[in-house]
Known about the structure:
Layout: H1 3-7, E1 37-43, E2 49-55, H2 58-61, E3 66-67, H3 84-104, H4 109-112, H5 117-120, H6 124-137, H7 141-147, H8 156-174, H9 188-202, H10 206-239, H11 255-267, H12 283-300, H13 304-311, H14 317-339, H15 345-351, H16 376-388, H17 400-433
Parallel strand pairs: 1-3
Antiparallel strand pairs: 1-2
Helix pairs in contact: 3-8, 6-7, 8-9, 16-17
Pfam family, one: SANT_DAMP1_like
Protein name: SWR1-complex protein 4
Family: Belongs to the SWC4 family.
Amino acid sequence: MQRELFNLLGENQPPVVIQSGSNFKEKMLSTSKPSPWSFVEFKANRFVTLRHWVKGSKELIGDEPKESAYSKFNQHLSIPSFTKEEYESFMNETVNQDFLENEKNLNDSHANERVDENKNNWPFEEIIYLFKLCEKYDLRWFLIFDRYNYNESRTLEDLKEKFYHICRNYFKVSNPSNPLLSSLNFSAEKEVERKKYLQRLLSRSAAEIAEEEALIVESKKFEMAAKRTLAERESLLRLLDSPHSDQTITQYLTSQGMSQLYNTLLTDKTRKRKHDPNIPENPWMKQQQQFAQHRQLQQMGVKKSDVKESSSPKKTKRQRQEIQTALKRKSESAYAEQLLRDFNSDERKALGVITHGEKLSPGVYLRSTKLSTFKPALQNKILAILQELSLPSRPVMPSHDIVERQEELLKKINTLIDLKKHVDKYEFGKSITK
């Protein structure tokens, strides 16, 4: 404690209590005995035996190694197994079935090519070798292809096609209602074509990718234009909906009949169709009203300027108040200019006399607070440009002239940023069209 603060305590000094404490943890009091742990063997699989710690004594666990607790998660696929006689029997049966189907469907060219020589020239030992690899690696075909080492060289597509072909024939004979039959169809030719297409897709250059993206953008524009054209065509057909053909059209040949038809189409609510709020006015009725109005005004001797004013819509109360306020400000500004007509611009500047045409807010304020503000993104760009020009964001001495110049500079910078945005947009569109 500092000496000055200690002197402020006076005579009533509080006693200082020192509590003695130990920094060591208290001894754990437990009446139960610790459980024994044993380092025993367990079977990871049928080939490997490992050791791990197990809770319990060796007398309770025993000396024989037990199965691992995670052996239940070690699941494998069930691959069909068969002997040579079974293989020849179900292959011959499926060949005969395919032959009968080919006789029934002579026009099916693909069915005539099912019995291929490449599918029958595999020896039985190689087939058993393939199925053992599939069982060992759980149909991980890239591993199977990597470990495949037989007399003849096979491709990955040949291995998959042979495996699925034999499995399909096996289930056709043993279990024809098996739902897996539909998923055992594999075509090596289609797989090769798919890989070639994928290789061509991945080997594209940057220019080809940019061209493809530009074509996609253009196609989307064409689709949007087509949808817009269809919508306009539907609205036009809906507008030009004619009356029933069993009625005569003589009543619609006159101007009165045309206006009656137009009103009927607009007020017809019995037809279930979407109402279009952008229905154009009837040109015949509009022209007729203008002609009648012009004829009436000519009879009353109204001038052409008065005709334009009468044709314009009536102003609301708020608009009339704004017009009156603007006229009042204009008259006050003209009155102030008349009072200061004997002073030239230098004398006005020296005296600090300024005429304001706009309405001023009451109270005292700083001129710098009246500078124009923009949106945050645009404001950051303007501040960056001012920083490049070594100018502050707000003037140091905000006099009237400096504030006006600052306002003009901000407006010009805003205009330049807007022009740059349009130029960039035009150049981007030009690059897409190329």
